[in-house]
Each structure stands twice: as structure tokens, then as C-alpha cells.
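PROTEIN DESIGN WORKSHEET
SECTION A - STRUCTURE
LENGTH: 119
C-ALPHA CELLS:
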């Protein structure tokens, strides 16, 4: 089992920044990728960014490219999502999710952290 705990959400004004954290514990050796998703009220969950657990390869949704940066601290088993130039359209609950190697599915999810961007 893998446990994921997000933190770092909050209220910020348009143009501001936030850094979200996703701390992983448990059988982290079973993880291949950490993904960030978000879901706004009344909308479907959408992919935001992803990074290989071993480091290196990253991927971003077009809507956040150039504004968000995903990174990792292997010593802390923690992934980060640096969010800059935030707009009200970024308001959502943000979740991190881990892709398990054996299943190829996003089997592990955190509880989510709320990001609210005021205009």
C-alpha cells in the first residue's frame, strides 16, 4: 500500500503562486509515476501534470504549461507542484495520484487540497 498526503493549498489572488506538496509513504517502490489532477465544482476531473517517480520525465496539460512546474525530492519521498501566474480558472481541489507498476492504474490517491484563486 501507498499513502499520499497533499498539502499547500489555500487562497491566493490572481497572478499569485502556490506550491503544493504530495508526500508518499509505504511501498513507494511500487510506484512508477506521480500525477496531479484537479477537479472544480461541476466539472470533470482533469489531468494537470505528471513526473516519473525515478525522476526526469515530466508531462503537463496544455492549460498549465509554462505556469506550473512539477518536481520531486527523492530524499523526502515528496512531489511538488509549483503553480505560478494563477488565475480563477485554476480554482479546484487538487489531488495527487500514484500509478502502480503492477496494475498500470492510478491505484493510490490523496485526499486533495483546495486551491482558490480570487479575481
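SECTION B - SEQUENCE
RESIDUE ASSIGNMENT:
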Amino acid at each position: 500500500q501507498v499513502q499520499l498526503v497533499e498539502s499547500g493549498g489555500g487562497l491566493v489572488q490572481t497572478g499569485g503562486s502556490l506550491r503544493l506538496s504530495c508526500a508518499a509513504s509505504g511501498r513507494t517502490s511500487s510506484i512508477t509515476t506521480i500525477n496531479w489532477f484537479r477537479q472544480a465544482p461541476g466539472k470533470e476531473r482533469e489531468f494537470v501534470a505528471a513526473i516519473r517517480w525515478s525522476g526526469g520525465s515530466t508531462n503537463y496539460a496544455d492549460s498549465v504549461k509554462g505556469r506550473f512546474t512539477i518536481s520531486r525530492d527523492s530524499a523526502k519521498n515528496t512531489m511538488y507542484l509549483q503553480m505560478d501566474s494563477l488565475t480563477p480558472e485554476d480554482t479546484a481541489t487538487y489531488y495527487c495520484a500514484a500509478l502502480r507498476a503492477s496494475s498500470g492504474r492510478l491505484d493510490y490517491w490523496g485526499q486533495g487540497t483546495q486551491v482558490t484563486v480570487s479575481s
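SECTION C - NOTES
Residues 40 and 92 are 4 Å apart (CA to CA).
The chain has a mean pLDDT of 96.
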